[in-house]
C-alpha cells in the first residue's frame, strides 16, 4: 500500500509539473504593448557548420546546414541577450525551378502544409516536424515566443502542380510580381469577385501547420498583396483556436503600389482593420528623416488606428530587416545608433540574425558560379550586404562583442523603463538640424537621447534642456564617442557620424549614488 501511495504521489507530481509547464500564448498582448524584442533567424543558416571556413556549406564534404535541433542549442544565448520573440524566416519547402541560389529562396514556397526537408537533422530518427515542434517547445521553456513567416507567393514548381492557385495575365501567361523571378503571383479572386477558395484552403492548411507546431503567430510577407476579406477570414479562423495568435503584416504607410498590375493592393490601415495586430513603421526611410518628430510618427499613427478600430495596434521598429543592407556598411557607429533608437522608441524591437555581432553579410562566394547546385540555378545568388536566404551558407555573425554587449544592455533598458514610452515624448530644440534629441519623463524616471543623424560628418551644436539640476546625476547608459557637456540650461555636443548618447535618471539610481 505504501509503495502504491509513493507511486501515486510521483505520478501526481509529474502531472502537476507538466501542467505548470504548459505554455500560454501571450504574444498579441506583448506585441500590442510594444514589448516584443524580436530576432529574425534563418534556420537553414542559424546553426550551420562551415568546417573549412569558405562561407558556403558543402554538403558533399560533410558540412551541415542549420537545423531545428541545432538551433535549440543557441536558444539560451538569445534569452540571455533579452530576445523574447523569434521570427522564423520561411520554413516551408522551397522551389527548385527558375530558382535563385543553389538552395532556393526561402520565399519561393513550394507547399503550404509541410516543412522544408533541408532543415531536417539527419543524425536522428525524428521527422523535421517533430524537430520543429521541439524547437518551439524549447523556446517556450525560455519564455521566447515564435512567429512563423508566411510567404506571399508560390514557387514556379507549385505553379506547375497547382495552376488553380495562380494568376494569369491578359497574355495568358503566369505572373511574376515585381522582380521576384523565382515566384509566381497567387490568384486571390474568382471572376465573379469572390475569394479563390482553393487558395484560401491552402492558407488555412498553413495556419493549421503553424498551430500544430505550437507557434504563437504569423508574419505575413507582403500582406498588401491579398484582399481585406481574405485576411479577415484567415485571422478569424486562426483565432478560434488561439485568441492570442499574432498576425503581423509586412506593410507600411510608405507602400502605395501593388507588386504587379494583376495584384490587389490592400493598404496597411485596411489590413489593420481586417485584424492584423501591427505592421512595419516607416523606419526603412530613417536616413531620409529631417526631424526627431518623424521618429514618433509611425507610433502616433498606430495609436490613431487603435482608437479607430477599438483594438490595440502596434508597429515594428524595422530599422534593419533581411531586406536591408547591413548597418555595418554605413559606418561603425550606425548599428549602435539603430540599437539604441529601438531601445528608446515606442514599438517592438526587431533585428536580424547577425546584427547582434556586426555581420556585414559580405560573402566571398557571392554570385560566382557554383560547383554544385541543388536547384536549376548554377550560381550563388546573393543580394550584396544582405542576409543570404538563397544558399546553404555560413551561420550569420561576426566578432563585434561590444555591439553584442550593447544589445543586451539596451534590451534590459527597454524592459526596465519601457513604461516611460507611454508618456508623451518631448522633442528637444537643437541648434543643428542633424542633431535629434528627445526625452521621456515621469515623477521618478527620465530618459534623454541625443544623436547625430548625419552618417558622414562630425557635427557640433547645442540642445536646450532645463530639466537638469545636477548633470552628474544623469547616468550615461550609452556614452557618445564625441563629447557632451551641460551648463546653463543646454547641452553642448560634439558628435561623430551616427553617434548617439542615452542618459537615464531614476530615483533608484539617485539613491544608490
Shape: globular
- Could you tell me how far the N terminus lies from the C terminus, measured between alpha carbons in angstroms? 63 Å
- Strand-residue proportion: 15-25%
Sequence of strands across the biggest β-sheet: 1-2-3-6-7-8-9-10
User: What structural class should be given to the helix and strand makeup?
Assistant: alpha/beta
What is the tally of beta strands?
18
The rounded Rg comes to: 24 Å
Number of domains: 2
Going by CATH, the architecture of the largest domain would be: Alpha-Beta Barrel
Overall mean pLDDT stands at 93
CATH H level of the largest domain: which superfamily?
A: Glycosidases
Helix percentage range: 25-40%
Number of helices: 14
Largest sheet: 8 strands, parallel, barrel
The name of the CATH topology of the largest domain is TIM Barrel
Uncertain stretches of 5 or more adjacent residues: 1-20, 509-513
Can you tell me the CATH class of the largest domain?
Alpha Beta
Amino acid at each position: 500500500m505504501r509503495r502504491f501511495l509513493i507511486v501515486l504521489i510521483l505520478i501526481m507530481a509529474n502531472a502537476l509539473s507538466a501542467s505548470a509547464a504548459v505554455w500560454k500564448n501571450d504574444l498579441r498582448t506583448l506585441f500590442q504593448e510594444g514589448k516584443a524584442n524580436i530576432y529574425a533567424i534563418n534556420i537553414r543558416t542559424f546553426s550551420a557548420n562551415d568546417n573549412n571556413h569558405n562561407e558556403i556549406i558543402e554538403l558533399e564534404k560533410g558540412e551541415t546546414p542549420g537545423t531545428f535541433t541545432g538551433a535549440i542549442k543557441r536558444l539560451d544565448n538569445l534569452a540571455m541577450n533579452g530576445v523574447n520573440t523569434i521570427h522564423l524566416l520561411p520554413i516551408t519547402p522551397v522551389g527548385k525551378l527558375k530558382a535563385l541560389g543553389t538552395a532556393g529562396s526561402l520565399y519561393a514556397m513550394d507547399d503550404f502544409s509541410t516543412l522544408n526537408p533541408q532543415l531536417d537533422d539527419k543524425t536522428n530518427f525524428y521527422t523535421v516536424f517533430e524537430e520543429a515542434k521541439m524547437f518551439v517547445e524549447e523556446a517556450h521553456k525560455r519564455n521566447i515566443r515564435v512567429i512563423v513567416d508566411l510567404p506571399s507567393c508560390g514557387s514556379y514548381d507549385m505553379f506547375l502542380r497547382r495552376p488553380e492557385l495562380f494568376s494569369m495575365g491578359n497574355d495568358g501567361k503566369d505572373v511574376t510580381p515585381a522582380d521576384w523571378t523565382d515566384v509566381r503571383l497567387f490568384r486571390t479572386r474568382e471572376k465573379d469577385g469572390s475569394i479563390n477558395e482553393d487558395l484560401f484552403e491552402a492558407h488555412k492548411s498553413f495556419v493549421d501547420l503553424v498551430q500544430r507546431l505550437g507557434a504563437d503567430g504569423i508574419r505575413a510577407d507582403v500582406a498588401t498583396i491579398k484582399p481585406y476579406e481574405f485576411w479577415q477570414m484567415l485571422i478569424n479562423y486562426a483565432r478560434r483556436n488561439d485568441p492570442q495568435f499574432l498576425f503581423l503584416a509586412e506593410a507600411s504607410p510608405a507602400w502605395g503600389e501593388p507588386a504587379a498590375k494583376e495584384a490587389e493592393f490592400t493598404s496597411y490601415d485596411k489590413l489593420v482593420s481586417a485584424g492584423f495586430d501591427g505592421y512595419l513603421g516607416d523606419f526603412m526611410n530613417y536616413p531620409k528623416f529631417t526631424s526627431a518628430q518623424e521618429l514618433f510618427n509611425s507610433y502616433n499613427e498606430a495609436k490613431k488606428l487603435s482608437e479607430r478600430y477599438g483594438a490595440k495596434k502596434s508597429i515594428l521598429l524595422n530599422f534593419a530587416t533581411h531586406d536591408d543592407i547591413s548597418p555595418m556598411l554605413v559606418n561603425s557607429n550606425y548599428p549602435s545608433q539603430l540599437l539604441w533608437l529601438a531601445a528608446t522608441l515606442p514599438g517592438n524591437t526587431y533585428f536580424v540574425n547577425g546584427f547582434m555581432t556586426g555581420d556585414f553579410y559580405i560573402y566571398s562566394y557571392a554570385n560566382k558560379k557554383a560547383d554544385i547546385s541543388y536547384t536549376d540555378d548554377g550560381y550563388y545568388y546573393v543580394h550584396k550586404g544582405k542576409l543570404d536566404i538563397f544558399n546553404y551558407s555560413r551561420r550569420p555573425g561576426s566578432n563585434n562583442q561590444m555591439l553584442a554587449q550593447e544589445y543586451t544592455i539596451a534590451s534590459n533598458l527597454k524592459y526596465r523603463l519601457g513604461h516611460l514610452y507611454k508618456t508623451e515624448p518631448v522633442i528637444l530644440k537643437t541648434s543643428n538640424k542633424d542633431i535629434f534629441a528627445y526625452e521621456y519623463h515621469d515623477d521618478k524616471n527620465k530618459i534623454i537621447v541625443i544623436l547625430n543623424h548625419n552618417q558622414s560628418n562630425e557635427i557640433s551644436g547645442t540642445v536646450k534642456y532645463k530639466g537638469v539640476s545636477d548633470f552628474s546625476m544623469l547616468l550615461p547608459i550609452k556614452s557618445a564617442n564625441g563629447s557632451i557637456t551641460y551648463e546653463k540650461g543646454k547641452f553642448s555636443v560634439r558628435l561623430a557620424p551616427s553617434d548617439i548618447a542615452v542618459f537615464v535618471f531614476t530615483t533608484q539610481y539617485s539613491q544608490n549614488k
